[in-house]
Amino acid sequence: MKKVFGFFKFIALILALVLSLSFVDRLLSFKTAHGIKQARCLYAQPENTIDVAFLGSSHMHVNINTALLWEKYGIAAYDYSAAEQPLWMTYYYLQELCKYQSPKVVVLDFYAPAMFYDDYQYKYIADNFYGMKFSLNKLRMLKASVEPDRIKDFFPALVSYHARYQELEQADWDYLFESDEDKSSFKGYTPYFKIAEWEKPEFDAEDEEPLTAKSQEYLDKIIDYCNEKGIQMFFIVTPYIKEYYADQRFQYVENLCAQRGIMFEDGNAWYETLGLDFSKDYFDFSHLNYTGSCKYTDYLGAGLKYRFDIPDHRGDPAYESWDRNVIEIEKEVAEQGW
Fold first, then answer.
1. DSSP labels for 114-144?
2. Which residues pair with residue 105 across a beta bridge?
3. Domain check: are 26 and 114 in the same one?
4. 18 and 90: one domain?
5. pTM value?
6. pLDDT digits (tens, 9 = 90+) for 105-137
7. Most exposed residue of 8, 160, 212, 249, measured as fewest CB within 10 angstroms of its CB?
């Protein structure tokens, strides 16, 4: 009898330890909306409902309004992106996405590959890494993203944020009680509400500059993976205050797409068509604000419907979380007074 009691006592202690660690991890974990929230909320999306996935840097989840795509065009889209995401991380994001979703179209952003050239880009690695569930895919992404002697700085995750108990905010406590239903209404879009004035870029690079060898390797992997899965691709650059050296790489990607039969569009070539106002529609040199994102998204949505056979699921109960996304964005816009 004592042995049985001891066994159950041991099991109870193990369960208590697991629950305690889970509670601590959930409370102390990083919770940015620059990639971590985008990754975590993917797992709450109804299975196989995302028709269009936007992958890449913060340009996707700041500049592309999923609520507008749904409300006006009936496109069930998700911004599965993170700050300054390099193509090697995008490759593993794509594989993670396809564990749970069967996107018809993947829209890939080329801002970060054109701007940053190091093989290991540490500045925003936390935003790209911590939202993904533990898996072999996540470990492979970490291996591709950090030097061997730096792995211990990011894995296991608790080593990075164990001291956050000194800076807990209300959002940390709210996250403890956030349900999957709450998370499902988030579609990645994170609007910015500030105005900055900029001069319109007045150049177009005619000479091309290749991507780095590592970026090219993973771009080839992304293209091959999409082809194997039967996913259509659309490569884009969202509008920003572009630089000449980045534009040279956009030119390279455009030529590569022409060779491989992939659609490409540089939003910086359509300032007038979009009606972008450089005194009102930008948050900073790199991102549109809310009004700018609406202008660009409206244009992009029309193009997606024209180029691809994307079903309209408005009115389908299986897609009601996109209706809730519209309500949440409208509420946020009203609270900001925009």
1. HH---S---TTHHHHHTTSPSSHHHHHHHHH
2. 52, 232
3. no
4. no
5. 0.89
6. 999 999 999 999 999 999 999 899 999 999 999
7. 8
